[in-house]
Amino acid sequence: MYIKNLPVIFRHSHDLSYIIRVNLFGNHCPANNRNGLSLPRKPTPGRHRLIMKIKDKSFKILITEDKLQDRIATLGKSINQDYKGKEPLFIGILNGSFMFVADIMKSITLPSEISFVKLASYKEMTSSGTVKELIGLNENLFGRHVIVLEDIIDSGLTITSVMEQIKERGAASVAVATLLLKPEALKVEVEIKYTGFEIGNEFVVGYGLDYDGLGRNTTAIYQLK
Questions:
Q1: Is the pLDDT of residue 2 over 90?
Q2: 70 an active-site residue?
Q3: Which fold has domain 51-224?
Q4: CA-to-CA distance for 78 and 201, rounded, in angstroms?
Q5: Is the pTM of this model over 0.85?
Q6: Rg (CA), the chain
Q7: Which of 15, 82, 103, 154 does the annotation list as catalytic?
């Protein structure tokens, strides 16, 4: 049988939901619409743009989606090796780390827990430098091996305060995994166990990071043009 000049195969002639379209290369594409026909996937808006404009600023791509995912998977494997036999508690720092947390957790094969805390550190394009108390952390940290997941570390002041507050709650160990690190911007010495990428002092957006609340929903990271 042919539908719009494309050959299709019926697994069961009485059930149209099992129609599979055979593409031009002979591969079977699973049915994905209500009629059981496989349709071409539409490109997702916002993916793979070389230049992105947010409000009055233009940004150019800095780290591609492929590079991000490859590096994050590598970090996950390192954590699995280092914490073998342990049951770590991951703490994601909102809002910027949510994509990083979601993707790195896909690589974690250890028995583990995940929690999120809220901090206020960025507004517009500059860091406020204000360190605030952890909000939303209800887990008992006593004797736990904690891994803090952060999107970006620049001055180091915020993550230092976070680590101190976690240690005060009796954690057996505290480690930091950050997707991005700005070594030139550090104002204090910070022990960072896992780093995705070291970058310059440029302002970056995308993949969870924002400019004035916008730009988080991209699969790549962009820098100010």
A1: no
A2: no
A3: Rossmann fold (3.40.50)
A4: 27
A5: no
A6: 22
A7: 154
Q: Alpha helices, DSSP H only, in 95-156?
A: 98-105
Provide the H-helix boundaries in 23-120: 65-82, 98-105
Separation CA 165–CA 98 (nearest Å):
21
134 has a pLDDT exceeding 90: no
Interval 11-38 mean pLDDT: 41
Q: Are 180 and 154 in contact (CB under 8 A)?
A: no
More confident position, 210 or 194? 194
Name the residue type at position 222.
Y
Give the residue from 63, 65, 4, 67 showing the smallest Cα distance to 35: 4
User: What tokens were used for 150?
Assistant: 């952060």
Greatest mean pLDDT range, 51-65, 67-81, 111-125:
67-81
Cα separation, 146 vs 88, whole angstroms: 6
Domain-by-domain residue ranges, the chain?
Answer: 1-42, 51-224
Asked whether the predicted pLDDT for residue 22 surpasses 50, the reply is no
